[in-house]
Specification:
Blueprint lengths: L6 H7 L1 H14 L6 H14 L3 E5 L2 H11 L6 E6 L5 H8 L3 E5 L9 H9 L7 E5 L11 H10 L3 E5 L7 E2 L2 E2 L6 E5 L13 E5 L2 H10 L4 E3 L2 E2 L10 H11 L2 H19 L14 E2 L5 E4 L3 H10 L30 H7 L2 E4 L7 H14 L1
Helix pairs in contact: 2-9, 3-9, 4-5, 4-8, 10-13, 11-13
Amino acid sequence: MIPQTDPKAAYLAQRAEIDTAITRVLEGGRYILGAEVEAFEQEFAAYMGAKNAVGVASGTDALILALKALGVGPGDGVVTVSHTAVATVAAIELTGATPILVDIDDYYTMDVEGLAATLKGWSVKGVTPKVVIPVHLYGQPADMRGIMELALAHSLIVLEDNSQAHGATLDGTMVGRFGRIAAYSLYPTKNLGAIGDAGVIATDDPVLVEALKALREYGWRERYISDIAGFNSRLDPLQAAILRAKLTRLAADTDRRRAIAARYDAGLAGVAGLELPATRPGAQPVYHQYVVATDRRDALQAALKEAGVGTLIHYPVPVHLQRAYKDRVPLSPAGLARTERAAGRILSLPMFPQLTDAQADSVIQAIKASL
């Protein structure tokens, strides 16, 4: 069976370095925060071109703490997309703020026209728009030029959800560098993944850094004394050490993901009824996922399973149609037609750096035989 993703393969590819990193932490005797976490934060910030990074316990916590550091809470509106991992919306609600969901564009990222319609026709009583969270889904950069222009016009803060786009660029600028702050998941299957949960926040703002470091540890600025109400969301030193090892391979892994995507592009071009992922002009995606679309999605997925090819659907039900959120979360007046259509058509093919050319070719042949 060709898996859709394979975090164990990522470990095996760097087994010696990762095992050495784990041993270093175990023998060092510091098991909460400390030098290992600080070193990862510095190295990650340097890679992403940010002045600072703050490690936290998960990507969801990265969003929550970033919002809290921005002062987001009850009465504030946060605009994002429904076509995303539910964590994006859950994080907003966990701050007490109200999520407002907009549609996607042809690249599965925030539709600028839908955002404009939402801001122009704002009708959520008792809620003032404060933050926009574009999600760089599948490693595809969102239209940050258009989003930043609207955010500036409406005095909104931009928090980028960069959980699936570590290292992607738009017009030569790393995504995560457009807004005031960016949140990253370091979940095991992400382009930069821990062996367990982990997350990180990047920003150039020293005031936000100070707030984030307090928020992740009970609001402490002095040990055992809480200046503000905080959380327990510290990046584990073991995960930090593993991530430091894996960060050294991120550029090479990104190149490999792009090579696999190019192989899929070439091998699947012209297959009737199959839509391949588009690339926004000026963008350099990092292919966290390679997502095709077809009206025969369920049949194709079943046929690929029979042929020994694993696939996943990211995501089968838009957030606004899930039981926890349906009929209570405000939606863009422009509607979410593209979001709802995509959910029934998309399919994520096998994509991870250790996927071989032969395996990718097998996926291509299986698709051609199935459509």
